[in-house]
Specification:
Leucine-rich Repeat Variant, 713 residues, mainly alpha
Length: 713
């Protein structure tokens, strides 16, 4: 074959083809072109194959100087030009050695390979497509070539190949996509530009359905959005924008596979990538319909963190998407997985961002309203996290948590669990009780009913083993009862304790636990209006150990509360001292317990001075207010409130109060005894250690003789 070729091409031509000078190689190539034209006209294709073989083996694959390889490449291009329309049948011999030259270490060889392939492609055009994947692979590498001249030549060849592909009907997108997908995560900026350019060109061809293969390279495009090159980011964004517009106009889109990619990219550290991902998700939620139902949980997992993003644009789009998603009503038959969504919502309850935690709670409420039965199936896994959320530092979050709990607590056993947990939490976290107790209790009273909440609290506190905490908790509940506008109806019901069965039951229910605190018990009696006789008896029953600093602090609060609108009815009753004698005696009893220099003493004394006693009493009592009370009480006992007062067995209640206070006294004594024992033990240990240190530091033999103490004269 080589011998045939040597007889066809003159030796001088072959020598010139391997010459160092470009002009000689070019002229030799023109002579080869002419020879091939003659052979092609004569139909001597075997000889043409022999010429191609000679150029391939002796020149392009030559181990000798690189200008010989360059001559071989120019010669192969000349052969193709000489063959013109008949070149296609020899492409399998011509193209491989040219492609192989792209891997040569010499940049000049790579350059001439680009030039040769460019000339070959110009001649064969569409017949060139069968080698497209190999050519694309070579161009992808050449686009990042270290030599600028090679890059320029590769760009020229790339443009020609694009023109050929766009006009060809033989191009196979199915074979090309795997090749594209493999290279989409390359980081080289030149390769990225090359890839985006091809994606854009192919997408512009009407007969090529790039949208159908978008999931295969979508992740790579999103990856380019965070490229350090502004130009690459811009090109990738332009390509993505075009695809998104096509999605909006296309009736058949595979939303599912792309949703997975978008969800992953929504967590990107790059701000622009997150914004673009959330924008796409927003459009998908609007367009995807039933296709996206199985992906709702994943989408929600991407949206919720973005609601608290530092970038306002991302927050706005994320909120809008969240609202769109929550407005869609899907059922399990469509693949809606409520369990998966609850897992996401539970996870985001631990988010460091308040806005995200709030939206997670909105999802709990939404799912609970839509499908209580389905929600209840997963309640065991989410009830504890929801209870823990009551300790959240945000008031807004706590209020929403309470709303969710209120919906759950429509079932009584969940209500009991909630109330028990609150007591347990307040017991372990006194700061929460102090700072959030009122907020939590008041909101629960609004959501679940004040009477129901207070009755349950009272029932739990009756059996509370920690008496100190029980007293603190009762005082807190009592203060909320006396001050909160949300509990106005509960106060009104208590005022009817002696004339209404419901009021009586409520009074007795609260009284059982209110006994933990003397001041709470007295406050409860004052609220009940006509239980003043019992309030006075409670005051009289207090012992010396009951009146401590904590008691006086609570008493101070009560005196100040008596001046608020809540107790306006009580102050008005003082206008009729003859009718409300036990009220007067109760107030004077409280006055006698207060230190005279305290502000509360002065407030109450000033109030009692305004009581309008009758002229007859003033004359007979020598202006002694308390003697007036005794006089009025003796008269009043014979004619007032006896039927109503007997509606409640106050003697039994007084015994109940006394029994509870005795428990507190015993508890206090035990605490004091324990402290004394502990102090004595510590002192004993200190003495023992001191004696041991003294004995070890002073040996027996070195001690001076003891001296008898001198007598004191």
């Amino acid at each position: 074959m080589a011998a045939d070729a040597l007889s066809i091409i003159p030796g001088a031509v072959l020598r010139n083809l391997a010459d160092k000078l470009y002009e000689k190689r070019k002229n030799a190539a023109l002579e080869i072109e002419g020879i091939v034209k003659q052979l092609s006209t004569a139909g001597e294709h075997d000889k043409i194959a022999a010429v191609i073989g000679l150029l391939t083996n002796d020149f392009t694959y030559s181990p000798q100087a690189n200008h010989r390889k360059q001559g071989g490449l120019i010669g192969l291009a000349a052969v193709t030009v000489g063959l013109t329309s008949e070149a296609a049948q020899h492409l399998e011999l011509i193209v491989p050695p040219v492609l192989n030259s792209f891997l040569d270490q010499d940049s000049r060889v790579r350059y001439y390979a680009c030039e040769a392939l460019y000339n070959i492609a110009k001649v064969v055009r569409g017949d060139f497509i069968i080698y497209f994947n190999k050519i694309f692979d070579a161009l992808c590498k050449l686009s990042a070539d270290s030599d600028a001249n090679v890059q320029s030549a590769a760009h020229l060849l790339d443009r020609l190949v694009k023109d050929i592909v766009t006009e060809s009907d033989q191009f196979s997108i199915e074979e090309f996509i795997p090749l594209l997908r493999e290279r989409m995560n390359v980081l080289n900026p030149y390769v990225r530009q090359f890839l985006v350019g091809w994606i854009t060109v192919l997408d512009s061809v009407p007969d090529i359905d790039m949208l159908g293969f978008l999931p295969d390279f979508l992740d790579g495009l999103f990856n380019m959005l965070s490229d350090s090159s502004h130009e690459i980011r811009q090109q990738a964004d332009a390509a993505l924008s075009e695809f998104l517009q096509e999605i909006k106009n296309s009736p058949n889109v595979d939303y599912g596979r792309m949703a997975e990619i978008l969800v992953r990219r929504a967590g990107s550290p790059d701000e622009f990538t997150r914004l673009t991902s959330i924008t796409w998700i927003n459009e998908f939620v609007k367009l995807g319909g039933e296709q996206l139902v199985p992906y709702y949980a994943d989408i929600l997992g991407a949206i919720l963190p973005c609601i608290s993003d530092e970038e306002e644009k991302i927050r706005v789009v994320a909120r809008e998407t969240n609202e769109e998603l929550r407005a869609i009503k899907a059922d399990q038959a469509e693949g809606f997985d409520i369990g998966a969504i609850l897992v996401i919502a539970k996870r985001e309850l631990n988010s460091e961002h308040e806005a995200t935690r709030i939206e997670a709670l909105h999802w709990f409420s939404t799912l609970l309203v839509r499908g209580r039965a389905e929600f209840s199936a997963y309640l065991d896994g989410i009830f504890e996290p929801l209870l823990n959320a009551l300790s959240d530092p945000s008031d807004a979050v706590v209020l929403l948590v309470l709303e969710v709990h209120a919906r759950i607590a429509e079932e009584y056993h969940h209500f009991q669990h909630l109330m028990s947990y609150l007591i347990h939490t307040f017991h372990n976290n006194h700061v929460l009780l102090e700072k959030r107790g009122a907020l939590i209790v008041r909101r629960l009273c609004v959501l679940l009913g004040a009477e129901k909440v207070y009755r349950e609290f009272s029932t739990i506190l009756q059996s509370e083993g920690d008496l100190d905490f029980a007293s603190t908790m009762v005082q807190a509940l009592n203060l909320i009862l006396l001050t909160s506008t949300e509990l106005a109806e509960l106060r009104s019901l208590l005022k009817k304790s002696l004339v209404d069965t419901c009021g009586k039951d409520l009074f007795l229910s609260l009284y059982a636990s209110w006994c933990h605190s003397p001041m709470a018990t007295i406050s409860l009696c004052l609220l009940a209006q006509v239980a003043y006789n019992h309030a006075s008896s409670v005051i009289q029953s207090l012992g010396e150990e009951d009146i401590n600093v904590k008691f006086l602090v609570q008493l101070d609060k009560l005196i100040r509360l008596l001046e608020t609108p809540v107790f306006a009815y009580l102050r008005l009753q003082l206008l009729e001292p003859g009718k409300h004698t036990w009220l007067l005696k109760t107030l004077y009893g409280l006055l006698m317990l207060l230190p005279q220099q305290s502000a509360a003493f002065k407030i109450l004394r000033t109030r009692l001075k305004t009581v309008p006693f009758s002229e007859n009493l003033k004359r007979t009592s020598s202006a002694n207010p308390y003697s007036q009370i005794l006089q009025v009480t003796e008269d009043g006992n014979r004619n007032q409130d006896a039927p109503n007062y007997s509606a409640i067995d106050f003697s039994s209640r007084l015994q109940q109060f006394g029994s509870m206070q005795q428990q507190h006294r015993n508890h206090l004594k035990n605490q004091l005894q324990s402290r004394k024992s502990a102090s004595a033990a510590v002192l004993s240990q200190e003495i023992q250690r001191y004696e041991e240190s003294q004995s070890s530091s002073t040996p027996e033999i070195s001690r001076p003789p003891s001296r008898a103490p001198k007598a004191i004269s």
